[in-house]
Amino acid sequence: MRIRLISPQLLGLALAFIASAASAASPDSGAQSLFNGRDLTGWSGILSLWSVQDGTITGRTTAEEPIKNNTFLIWTNGLVDDFELRFSYKITPNNSQGFANSGCQYRSQVADAAKFIVGGYQADFEAGTTYSGILYEERGRGILAQRGQATRIKADPQSPEKTQVEVLGTIARSDDIQSAIKAEDWNHYVIIAKGNRLLHIINGRVTVDVIDEQPSRAARSGILAFQLHAGPPMTVQFKDVRLSPLK
To answer: Which helix (H) or strand (E) holds 242?
Structure first.
């Protein structure tokens, strides 16, 4: 088994970027609450799947009415570009396989408005022990950073529409990140997007640090949305959703 050594330099750069983003948060607008805790005002999705329960945004699938495609609850009050987003999530697998997957889309696009299907950057999380914290591009380039990685995304010199993922180093061990995540309980997620740099943080642990340098594919703005994954029955909940624009 190959063990990647943590790079203190890369971790230090990530922490410096977080501090820079915090200082760049607009003092005029402050953090905007995206969820009022009572209803889905400002959000749009399939209402048989999404509701507000106990003051949380709740997405639920059942064995009786499974969904065939990933579907999303879309924030309808604008696009995001450079920002810091904070939210708490809880994910529960209501099935014997223990499977449940979700995520937060950002700088994304609506692929099918009728079915609330979205593509773009996704801050992933799950009930399992592998994917929480990764950067995944839904309906696009796939995994752009595994958990604990710092990566640079580039165009293939021979075919610019193809993607190359360069692993710059390791900023954290995947097992250490997972040890801080609470199963079937509330966890805190932070997403920072500024320019072409993207960071994910769960419960204070930096999970990925990505620089997207592929000109034809990198997204600089788009929508926010929460995912409800196709597959076995599951429940995902969100609360304390707050958005801060970055200067």
So the answer is: strand 234-245
Q: CB within 8 A of 45, min separation 6: which ones? A: 59, 71, 72, 73, 74, 116, 228
pLDDT category, 95, cuts 50, 70, 90? Answer: very high
Q: What is the pTM of this model?
A: 0.92
**Pairing mode, strands 159-170 and 149-156:** antiparallel
What is the CATH number for 16? 2.60.120.560
Q: By the 8 A CB rule, do 124 and 145 touch?
A: no
Cα 137 to Cα 163: distance, rounded to the nearest angstrom: 12
Residue bearing tokens 């809880």: 90
Q: Is 229 part of a structural domain of the chain? A: yes
Residue 30 has what pLDDT? 81
Kind plus residue range of the DSSP H or E element containing 223: strand 223-228
Q: Can you say whether the dihedral through the CA atoms of 58, 69, 91, 4 is positive or negative?
A: negative
Asked whether residue 2 is assigned to any structural domain, the reply reads no
Among all chains, which residue has been given the structure tokens 């930096």?
206
Nearest to 229 by CA among 59, 46, 98: 59
In a domain, 166, yes or no: yes
Q: Please tell me the distance from the alpha carbon of residue 151 to that of residue 58, in angstroms, as a whole number.
A: 33
When divided into structural domains, the chain yields a total of 1
Q: What's the domain range around 227?
A: 8-245
CB atoms closer than 10 angstroms to residue 33 = 12
